[in-house]
Amino acid sequence: MHAARILAIKQPAVFGPASDPIVMEGRAIVHLRAAALNHRDLFVQQGLYPNIRLPVTPGSDGSGVVAAGSDPAWDGREVIINPALDWGDDPRAQGPKFRILGLPDDGTWAEQLSIPIVNLAPKPAHLTWEQAAALPLAGLTAWRALFTRARLQPGEKVLVTGVGGGAALFALQFAVAAGAEVWVTSGSAEKIARAQTLGAKGGVNYRDPELVSVLSAAAGGLFDVIVDSAGGDGFASLIELTKPGGRIVFFGATTGNPKGLDLRKGFFRQINILGTTMGSPADFAGMTAFVAQHQIVPVVDRVFPLADAEGALRHMESGAQFGKIVLSI
User: Fold this and answer.
1) Most buried of 19, 46, 134, 326, CB within 10 angstroms?
2) Which CATH architecture fits 140-275?
């Protein structure tokens, strides 16, 4: 077997031989056909992720074929992998054993992977290997944010910030498919235009000093649901953009913690601020069924060979991608 591994912080990912996975009770071996990148993979390489244990084979997303001898019910089936390991019994929040595939457990940037059988799901038939590999982590994150946490309803007005990354694009696609009116922000006019081809009504540059007035005027009012992963000082403007009784759901803080929030406006408007991360097995099942029902196709930005995982990481670091970066295996 070969895999791409991170051996040391701030060092290139190395592609080379790795140990073959061992068949174990309750687990399956998957011959991977494609894997995908998430920002957590880059953060591990940069030393910015908590509890890093090296060396590790990164990768939370993958698609492939279950090897014979794993389980009669799954042998030979085309699958995608749910990267949320050991969620626990409470659907409201993950338990103490929860972890994400790819750290500390070796992940999908490999020719083969041992994975708990409960983390297998049928590959959506309308997707290619690369499209299917792009789906799991970001799709799960966006699904739980919109439907489990924010409880999105048809006809509501949604704002997705920082469109271009995988989870933000899934939030856009899912919300449009659910019958919402969706607007976006980005630092790139090109990304806003591309988001419109996916169903967004329009968008505004988040660097605009008049963001609140410009966006609310363009959208014809405030938003029922806002999906954010940036945090930072810009989070204060999201309070301004939320309708009374509306929901802000967030799953990241890539620009840091907000320094100033108008809590008075937040409580007076009855605004709900909802944290979320990944999702439960029920969320994953709901997400994959929704994708199949609505024939949603993940946006793939670029495909790199597994042997050039380092090049894929550098492309992600550039911030130029629109959609998921995928490794072909």
Assistant:
1) 134
2) 3-Layer(aba) Sandwich (3.40)
Work out the end-to-end distance of the chain between its first and last CA atoms, rounded to an integer number of angstroms. 11
* Of 72, 94, 76, 73, residue with least CA distance to 85: 94
Task: Give the residues of the chain that fall short of pLDDT 50.
Answer: none
Within a 13 Å sphere around the CA of 62, how many CA atoms are in the beta-carbon half? 32
Q: What is the pLDDT of residue 55?
A: 94
The position carrying tokens 């929704």 is 290
With b for 16 or more beta-carbon neighbours within 10 A and e for fewer, the 244-264 pattern comes to: eebbbbbbbeeeeebeeeeee
Query: pLDDT by residue (tens digit) across 228-265?
Result: 998 888 888 999 999 999 999 999 887 788 887 778 88
Residue 324's pLDDT is what?
A: 98
State the Cα–Cα distance between residues 265 and 243, nearest whole angstrom. Answer: 11
